[in-house]
Design brief:
Layout (H helix, E strand, L loop, with lengths): L8 H12 L3 H13 L3 H25 L5 H9 L1 H33 L6 H16 L3 H26 L19 H9 L8 H4 L9 H27 L1 H4 L5 H8 L10 H31 L9 H12 L5 H39 L1
Helix pairs in contact: 1-7, 1-10, 1-13, 2-8, 2-10, 3-8, 3-10, 3-15, 4-5, 4-15, 5-6, 5-13, 5-14, 5-15, 6-13, 6-14, 7-10, 7-13, 12-13
Membrane topology: Multi-pass membrane protein
Protein name: Spore germination protein
Family: Belongs to the amino acid-polyamine-organocation (APC) superfamily. Spore germination protein (SGP) (TC 2.A.3.9) family.
């Protein structure tokens, strides 16, 4: 590990929030209401608890092996070849996730801001912009996340303030009427709206005060849970269940419909989408950085930046495979879920469990 490449625990918290809160939050209220109806908030909380559990495991993994990074620990515990296979799965998950993020932002911008701009131009522009920061080390990315973090919180606060005049909280009723058999499916769906927290695997080894890292990590996840709950409650309260189920991006639709007294900004939805692009930029960069790190480790090079630009055409091509946003949701998201489960759930858990047994065996 590089000794001068350090990240503070405040930056860890900001990195978790900025990496997780992205395009998924815009469609989450719609997708989760289709399964659990008014009780979608239950799935958000339960999946958040699962993320908290995995976050704790990730932190404890580095307590077991202090002064070692994720790649060193993985090879020590699983062996070189088995761990490399898992890294390939991880890499595929990251690349497809970046393709989905890029296509999502293009569809959102076309729908709400840049109607006449070709999708291809938006995608390639967004990818190329993220390559600049993704070539940097975690110290720089952490600083960028620390500045994007207030933008995320500001967006949510503004959303609350401008929507309070039109929400009807009785639309959340009745509660606890959903089919309990749909709960596992809804948890699975909302869990993958938390993807991005796996950046902890690549950043925890570089924290300045490792004893406080778990607290900062959990605070970051906790903030995301609260944000998701607020977004769901506002969407459901504004539209009601049946209308919410017909809204692909309810938050952006909500902003579009708002009419404030003394309204002096005509295109408020365009302004909010422009701000949201910054937030999604903060989501894309950790994915890109992580993919570069994996490739750098697989090919045993010192600089991960060598692999950032070569990944661009691959991400671009994959992002254009779905014909529309419906196919994007059905095809690519299923692919992400399968590879994501192996990469961000199974892999950290299996490394920690095996590493724990090995460490106890060596103590004996």
């Amino acid at each position: 590990m590089q000794k001068n490449n350090k990240i503070s625990n405040k930056q860890i918290r900001a990195l978790v929030v900025s990496a997780v809160v992205g395009t998924g939050i815009l469609s989450l209220p719609n997708r989760i209401s289709l399964i659990l109806g008014n009780d979608g908030w239950i799935a958000i909380i339960l999946s958040g608890i699962l993320v908290i559990g995995i976050t704790i495991i990730m932190n404890k993994l580095f307590y077991l092996y202090p002064d070692k990074d994720f790649f060193e620990i993985g090879r020590m515990v699983l062996g070189k070849w088995l761990f490399n296979i898992f890294l390939v799965f991880f890499l595929i998950y990251l690349i497809v996730s970046m393709a989905a993020i890029s296509r999502n932002i293009a569809e959102i911008l076309k729908a709400f801001l840049l109607e006449n701009t070709p999708t291809e131009i938006i995608i390639i522009s967004f990818i190329l912009v993220t390559t600049y920061l993704s070539r940097s080390e975690i110290q720089v990315i952490g600083r960028a996340a620390y500045h994007i973090y207030p933008v995320v919180l500001g967006f949510v606060i503004i959303l609350i303030l401008i929507s309070l005049t039109s929400v009807d909280f009785t639309n959340m009723l009745p509660l606890f009427q959903s089919n309990i058999r749909n709960t596992p499916k809804s948890i699975s769906l909302s869990f993958f709206s938390y993807t991005g927290f796996e950046i902890l695997l690549f950043s925890i080894p570089f924290t300045e005060r490792k004893k406080e890292t778990m607290k900062s990590s959990l605070m970051g996840v906790g903030i995301v849970i609260v944000i998701y709950l607020i977004i769901f409650v506002l969407s459901l309260s504004q539209y009601g269940l049946q209308s919410l189920r017909r809204q692909s991006f309810p938050i952006l639709s909500l902003i579009k419909e708002i009419d404030l007294p003394g309204y002096f900004i005509e295109n408020l939805d365009g302004l909010m989408v422009a701000i949201w692009v910054i937030v999604i930029f903060g989501t894309m960069v950790p994915f890109y950085y992580s993919a570069g790190k994996i490739l750098s480790n697989l090919f045993n090079t010192k600089e991960h930046g060598l692999f950032i630009l070569p990944l661009t055409p691959l991400i671009y091509i994959i992002s254009l495979i779905p014909e529309n946003i419906v196919q994007l949701s059905k095809q690519i998201r299923k692919f992400i879920n399968y590879f994501g489960f192996v990469s961000i759930v199974f892999l950290p858990i299996i490394i920690y469990v095996i590493g724990l047994f090995k460490s106890r065996g060596s103590d004996r």
